[in-house]
């Protein structure tokens, strides 16, 4: 079958099988989500930094590859101490990214194309340059307790004032910083330039609801909620903050992991905030109409905690707590590892809530092509799209971009933001990312061969595999995941992982992925004769060929195939 046939095959299957009526599936339940890091996606004005107009100019590409919704990392006004996660104004665009008019034009274009926009909502803290913090320093009415302030303690031996507790910040060092003007310490889970909000203040909660309202009225479809485990901290009835116990994980007293965070992480009140925001979003949707306004919650937290994010039997919260299990995979990963990590999620979240999502990369972690290896990157693209639920892809992973050491000397390389280098669109100057003379991070030198334009013309490229899998997610078999027997998965051997997706009595897809470097033999998988519809570059098979799965078959090292059977 030709490369053209490979591209259109899933669409033809979708049309042929549209009579099948699966259970109702909301837009976020089986979506293809795509994360954009705005600095690195597309520069429209030649200053070397990506911007909103650049994103708008590339939205048609997202439509082309089958994206449902795109999540934008923070675009708000910020001093950029933490790359935009230190927000000085929650309802203003960072000028380098453009204007509010640019934002409105981007949303309008996205909706015209049938794409949804997800904004990064950062409710745990602000910048210390935020007007709210400056008012809190001055103890202005209503803002006195807007942040977490404390006098600290007097050291009995030295007589000097010291922080209220031993709490360390996520980024290392004390989580309390002295403010000379107010003559108190303030608490910050992250940088000292990111003071934490005090969520016991009703005014804080009102302000954040107003922020959500502002962006909803501009057409935003959903929010990714940042740093959920860190919203609340324990304050005792006497107004003091208890010391956290030593963890034993490190001897470095400045490290976050020096203590076990029983008082500063995963407090039960965190979940109440999610329920509060969900109630607000549902009411907004009821009043204004339109599709479900979803919440995607970012949290590295125990699975039982994430389960409560969705609901506790009484209240509902985030539809999609992000599943970071596959971020753990490295180049030694086996099918058994994938099965274990999938089960860790499904045994709780699917059993209780019938929901799943699969994240393989983001702006805080090494890219899949580097972390698990180029030979396995396509494999995990197929696996994350083939498992039931929503797939989440970080920009550039759809073409297999690797990490880049961005600053090198003859003796050392600095991996500064190695997973955030500019998107590689084509083989022209700066990979088509910017017409400027320089870019905020270097473009990976491999862009001449690794880019969108080139992969569009290669049948088995990472991009074509991504496009084909996102198209398959729209077929009846992939949308029937709520039906009894609609899917199964597991390790057939130590190295071979299988996923089966079924529209009962209509069609079946079977994914076979060999994670190992040796040929794998499989016997008597099923009595069906199936057709190859997607094959990786390591496969000796061709699209359109038939295979009798009642007989012995072989998978080459790192080979992944998608097979189809139709009634």
Uncertain ranges:
1-20
Oligomeric state as shown: single chain
User: What share of residues is helical?
Assistant: 25-40%
Number of DSSP E strands: 25
The major pleated sheet works out as: 8 strands, parallel
What is the CATH T-level topology of the largest domain?
TIM Barrel
- How far apart are the first and last residues' alpha carbons, in Å? 21 Å
Strand order of the largest sheet: 13-12-11-5-2-1-15-14
**Share of β-strand residues:** 15-25%
Given the C-alpha coordinates, what overall shape results? Answer: globular
Q: Would you tell me the overall average pLDDT? A: 94
CATH class of the largest domain: Alpha Beta
Radius of gyration: 25 Å
* Secondary-structure class: alpha/beta
Q: What is the CATH superfamily of the largest domain?
A: Glycosidases
Number of helices: 15
CATH architecture of the largest domain: Alpha-Beta Barrel
For the record, the count of structural domains works out to: 4
Account of the 3D structure:
The protein has helices spanning 3-16, 38-41, 52-57, 59-64, 100-112, 131-137, 202-216, 268-288, 303-310, 335-353, 368-371, 374-386, 452-456, 462-472, 476-479, and strands at 32-36, 69-72, 76-77, 89-93, 116-121, 149-150, 153-154, 161-162, 176-179, 184-187, 222-225, 294-297, 320-321, 357-359, 390-394, 407-408, 413-414, 487-491, 496-503, 507-514, 520-522, 529-535, 546-548, 553-555, 560-566. The protein is α/β, with parallel strands linked by helices and 567 residues long. It has four domains: 29-126 and 202-403 and 456-476, TIM Barrel; 131-187, Oligo-1,6-glucosidase, domain 2 (Alpha-Beta Complex); 404-449, no CATH class; 484-566, Golgi alpha-mannosidase II (Immunoglobulin-like). It has an eight-stranded parallel sheet with strand order 13-12-11-5-2-1-15-14. A six-stranded antiparallel sheet has the order 18-19-20-25-22-23. Strands 6-10-9 form a three-stranded antiparallel sheet, with no helix packed on it. Helix 1 (3-16) runs parallel beside helix 14 (462-472), helix 9 runs parallel beside helix 10 (335-353) and helix 12 packs parallel to helix 14. It is globular. Residues 1-20 have low confidence and may be disordered.
